[in-house]
Each structure stands twice: as C-alpha cells, then as structure tokens.
Amino acid sequence: MHIDPLEKKWAQIVLAICAFFVVVIMSDALFHSVNAPSNVETINSATLHLSKEFAEDNLGVQVDENGDITVRMVAGRYSFFPKRISVPAETKLTFRWVSIDVLHGVHIPMTNMSTMIVPGFVAEIETSFPKPGDYPVLCNEYCGLGHDHMWSKIDVVEKDQWKAPQATSMGGDEK
Amino acid sequence: MNDITERRLALSHMWVAFIAFILACFMGEYQVLERSGLFEALDSSTVYFASVSTHGVLMAYVLTTFFIMGFGYYTASTSLNVPIWNKQLAWGGFWLALLGVVLAAVPLLMGLASVLYTFYPPIQAHYIFYVGATLLIVGSWVWCGIMIVMFLQWKQANPGKPVPLAMFATTMNALLWLWTSAGVALESLFLILPWAFGWTDTIDVGMARTLFAWTLHPIVYFWLIPAYIAFYTLLPKQAGSYLFSDELARAAFIVLVVFSLPIGFHHLYMDPEQAKGWKLLHSVGTFIVSVPTFMTGFTVIASLEVAGRLRGGKGLFGWIGSLQWTNTMVLSVILSLLMLIFGGFGGIVNASYAMNAMIHNTAWVPGHFHLIFAGTTVIMYFSVAYYLWPILTNKPIFSNNLALVQLWTWFIGMSILSTPWHVLGLLGQPRRISSVVYNNLMTLSWKPYELMMILGGLVMLGSACLFIYVIFKTQFSATEEVFEGEVEYAETYHPVTDLPEYLNDIKIWNKVIAVLMFISFGIPILQFFFLDTYDSSAWGY
Ligand code: HEM
Ligand SMILES: [Cu+2]
User: Fold this and answer.
1) Which residues of chain B fall short of a pLDDT of 70?
2) What is the DSSP code string of B359-406?
3) Interface confidence: ipTM more than 0.85
4) Which of B270, B289, B362 to probe by mutation at the A interface, max A CB count within 10 Å?
5) H helices of B158-265, where?
6) pLDDT tens-digit profile of B306-321?
7) Domains of chain B (ranges plus CATH)?
8) pTM score, two decimals?
9) Ligand 1 center to residue B370 CA distance, Å?
C-alpha cells in the first residue's frame, strides 16, 4: 500500500488535533464535572401528583439543612411550574425536572442550564448563574401546537439579597 | 452496453428526489416568512407544524434516499460495466418506496402527522404516517441488497482485482444504511407501530429515543457519502487531474462507515435516560469520525491543486485562480468545501460535551445542518445531476451558464440564511418554534436576523427553481444535438497494484461494526429491560 509522505504528515496532524479535543473534553467531564444530566433515574410521570417529591407543595426552590438549594420543576403543556421562581446568583443550584405529559426540553438562554425532559425520567442538573437578571425559561423541544407558548420566568438575584422561601422539612433527593 | 433500463432507473429515482426537493423548498420559504411574524395572515401554528413536518420528511428522507438509490444504480452499472442485477426487483423497490412516500404524505399534508421528521413519542401521529415511513425504508433495503449482490458477484468474477473505488464506496454506503436504518426500524416495528395501531397502550419513551439516536447520526453520513463519491471519483477527471490516493480513499470510506455508527449518543448528551460514561464513549467516536473528513479535504484540495498547476497556475495560491471555475463539478466542489469548513467549526461545538449545552436545540442546530446538509451535501447532488443528466438523456446540458449561476446563488443564499440562524441560536432562540411570543426584551434582538433569513431563503428558493428548470429543459427540450458521453471515473496518481484484502472487502467491516455496535449500544438498550421504567400513553399535539 502506498501512502504519500505529505499525506502521512497531514494524517498525523489530524490525529493530534482530535486527540487534543478528546483530552480537553475528557478532563472537563472527569475533573470539572461538566453537568450534562445523566442520572438515569426513573419516575412515573402519570402519577407525579401522588409522588412525594413532585407533589404541588414541594415544587420550586428549597433549601435543606446543609444550605444546599434544590429547584424542583414540572414541565407540562404549556409551561414550567412554578411559573416564576427566584434563585441566588453565584450559588450552586441543583435542578430536578420532570414532565407530566410529553417530551420537552428546557434552556435558560445565555446559561448552560439545558436539559431534555423525558417522560418517565428525572433530569437532574447542577449549575450556578454568574449574572443576576430576569431570565426566560424556554421549552426547546417540539411538544405540540402550543410549543411556542411554553415558557416561564426565573429571577436571578444578588446572592446577599436573596431570601429563601419558607423553610420546608424536605431535604435531599428522597423520593 | 445497452443501458436503457439503468438510465431509466436512475432518472426515475432522481426525479422523485428532486420533485420532493422543490416542493419542500417552497415550504422552507413559507416557514421563514411565517416565523418572522411579518404577515399576520400567515400566522398559524397548525399549518406551520404540518409544513415543517412535511419539509423535514421530504428533505431528510425522500430527497436523500431516492437520490442515493438512483445515483447508486448508475454508479454500480457504469463502474463495474455490468447491467443491474435483477431489474424487476429494483423497480419493485422503487415502487414500494414511492408508495411509502405517498402514504406518509397524505396524513402529513392533512395535518394528521405534525410530529416533525423525528416523530418522538409519546406524541402520536396517524398510523398511516408510520406505515408509509416504514415502507420507504423497506424499499431502500432492496437497493442495499442489489448493491451488495453486485459487489460480491463482481468480486467472484474478478478474483484478486480491486473493486472500482466508486462501487466500493457505494457498497459501503449500502452496508452503512442497513445498519443505520436498523435502529429506527426496530423502533418502528416493536414500539411505534403496535402502539399506533392500538395494540399496546403505552410506549417506552427512553428506549424509543435511544433507538432513534442509533439512526440519527449515521444517517447523515448516508446522505454525505454520495458527495464524497463525487469528490473522489468524478471531480478529478472534470478538473483535469488525478485522484491522489486510491487506497486512502478506501480507508476514508471505511472509517467513515465503521465509526459513524457507534456514536449516536451525541444526540442524547442532554438526555437523562443514558449515563455519562456511555455519552463520553460516543463523544470519543465522534471525534474519530472527523478524521476521514479531514483526510477527504486533503485529497480534494490536492486533486484541485494538481489540476490548477497542470493548467499553468503558479505560486502558493496561484493555482486556485487557474482552476476551471466554469465547470459545474469543479465549482460545486469548491463551494461545498467552503461550506464544509464553516460547518465543521460548528460541528466541533456541537460535538463538545460541554459547549453543546449552550446550543442544544437552539436555532443554532437547524442553522448548522442546513449549512452542512442542504449546503455541502445537496450542492453536490446538484452537480452530480448536471453531470449525469446529459449522459442519461443523451442531450447536452441546456445551459452551463445557468447551471453556474444556480450553484453560486445556492451558496450565496445559504450564507445569508444560515449565518443569522447560527447567531439566533447563540442569542437563545429555541429551534422548532412557529412564532416568538415570549414576553421578554431579549427577543427584540432576534428580529433583524429573522428578516435576513427570509432573504436568504428567497435566494435559495430561486436557485432551486433554476435547478429544476435546467434539468427539465435538458431532458425535454427538442434538440438535434446528441450527447454521447459516458461516466468517466478518476485515474489514480499512483495506480493501485497490490491492495490488501481489508481495503477491498465489506465482510470484515460488517463484523467490526457488529462488535462496535454491541459495545456502544448493547447495555444502553438492554438497561430498559432491567430498569423500572414507566411507559407513556399516547398524546395528541
Ligand atoms: C429554500 C431553502 C430552505 C429554507 C428557507 C428552509 C427553512 C427551514 C425552516 C425555517 C425550518 C424550521 C426549523 C425550525 O423549526 O427550527 C426547516 C427545517 C428543516 N429543513 Fe429546511 N429550509 C430550506 C431548505 C432545506 C434543504 C435543502 C434541506 C435538506 C436537504 C432542509 C432540511 C430541513 C430539515 C431536515 C428540517 C427539519 C428540522 C426539524 O424538524 O427540526 N431544508 N427548514
Ligand atoms: Cu414543551
């Protein structure tokens, strides 16, 4: 088999470029815990209201005994519930998203808070918002003819001005 | 060789492809107009989503599959210099696939299948839509079978000889498509059809998404490989040059086919039903599959440079000016490469596990695939058509100048359409929306980009009409002139003498694929049988 020296050189360069990308991605994923939701946690989307965790009173922002913040959200045609939430900036937040009906996606523009919300699964994602402001929360997967109207709001407030909603007993990720 | 049937097969398939294409282009322009909100009378999410579903199905499944089958039949018969094996069967496949398209089109156009071309459950379409889509796939399997039989028969009759590169690549593509379509076929047969017929009440959404992701990535290589076949085997002669290396071309096709299959999870990076380790594994494969594309870029540019220098071009870049810019094949390859380079940058962002979160399902994504699919790939479908039409109809091309204008305007229109589309994605606009009703200041910044997209789409629509006009006129104008050309395949710079068997065979690669697929999809699919999953009932839209 014949390989031209120039072609060989190019192949080596290309392999080096790819190896570089792979190393960067791997180190991001393994050492900086990049937060694609991959928790493979199932839930019955048809009976969410009966589940303890996603019962109506439990939705929204909650702070547990250790001060960790969890945001529980339900996606359903055509909004995210609760429709308006407020979280502190520059603070680690754990979002837990579930769907009550079909496939949805959620993205808060200009941030990496993005996940698919697949019926039957809880999508958990950790992130923090560096800049305070009013952000829209947009559905980004076609979910029916009203898909355009599916959105809600999130206020990101300065860390020291944020007040936790009244304390609740529920902590952690219990179901 | 009397190849009247082969020519009829090629023309029939390609006309179906291009009729689907032109109808869908009109829908595309309607969509950018509707989305802009400029014309109140147009506003209707019902019509819009019926249109996007039809546009997506026509472009992604009909244009591509029929073009690839038609081109493949003619490539097989001309490169091997034999008639098509079992012509009745080939026609059977054609009619079956066409029946599938017609069946799927009825509910699509009636708004009974507005589930987009990805038809993700648990939103359910009319069952006729799924039946039609399944028949289209089954029809295309007939083509795969015929390509593989012809490949094996030729090898048997010519022991030890290298299979012509064009046929080798076409057969690899047939193998690729059999493996690729298996994912969606499993989804369709075991999950969707029983559920759409009402035999089962619920559907396993996680498994359905996983099986669809199996198909969703390699399918784009199925669409792209014909463009690469033109790059490697047709361009060199047209440019007045040689193919740089036959062996490496084969290696490129092999890596492309083998590694495009086990990497579908980069479509599921943002999904909760698959674990991180599998996603990372697939992301590594995603980078491996970029290697053959880099190599192809090298070979094509090398072929062009040799051509430019043979035509008297001097200096580091002087050869570019002396290329035959008035040859449709040469021009389309240059434009296709340009779009590939920009699209490739975008692709790196998509493939990067972390950056993906910023653009996942935003307008960036349709911007990216219009550039690389409707741009890089489809512009090569045009120039292959310009090349083949005179050969298939024995009539000279109606107007080379109009064809050149058409290629340029497609490129220009695509630049105007896809640049703002990418920007919209970065500005946070989701894909697949029919209007902007978010009550938020951020959306004000979207307006100018949406207006630009209308212009880009308009230029592309004009270009698409011109394309149809030129091939129609070529075939149906009365003319005395007879065109008597044949397909001329590239000659290699260094003729192949001793080809190792692994560069001339599909069986080994079939086995390699089976192993890789088992590794990368085995557990992720099996997990749904062991997890306590909760299935979904059917939802309308
Ligand atoms: C006249 C030129 C075209 C225009 C103006 C156009 C416009 C559009 C628009 C506005 C969408 C909706 C995207 C969204 O909702 O996010 C779309 C979807 C799509 N287009 Fe085009 N398009 C054109 C040509 C093409 C071509 C040539 C192809 C491929 C060969 C193509 C393939 C697709 C596919 C597969 C979808 C479905 C995407 C989805 O379901 O999310 N389009 N197009
Ligand atoms: Cu939604």
Assistant:
1) 1
2) HTTBTHHHHHHIIIIIIIIHHHHHHHHHHHHHHHHTS--S-HHHHHHH
3) yes
4) B270
5) 165-186, 193-196, 205-216, 218-229, 235-239, 246-260
6) 999 999 888 888 899 8
7) 4-530 (1.20.210.10)
8) 0.95
9) 6
